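Hi, can you check this record?
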Amino acid sequence: MMSQLTSSASASMTVRDVQDMMHTDVVNGITNDEVRRRLMVHGPNNFDIATEDPLWKKYIGQFNNPLILLLLASAAVSLFMKQFDDAMSITMAIIIVVTVAFVQEYRSEKSLEALTKLVPPKCHCVRDGELMTFLAQDLVP
């Protein structure tokens, strides 16, 4: 059984040390039988997808922008000075800007998700002495 190897630990090791620790060979790679065995032991190379924040939280997060905070402060000052028209105008502008930014960010996230599903990540790796291209989820340690 091979040891757990973190990226920071491997960065400080020589290629030969990593190669020995991972029981592989940089020229020939590993055999297809070894790939199947490691896939059974470690499973596919998939990332756990973090749960998404709820939409309301993403919307509120848009207010955490220095320019928006400055506008909120200026609306508060206008309100304090009893300039209700100015305070209302600034507040409406803030709501419009934040809503547009939220919608654009939401659409961008959905487009990126669709692209990721359409074009799964691939990798290049040496197996049985040949350079091969395959899905990154089939990469084993």
About this structure: The chain has a mean pLDDT of 90. Residues 31-141 form one domain.
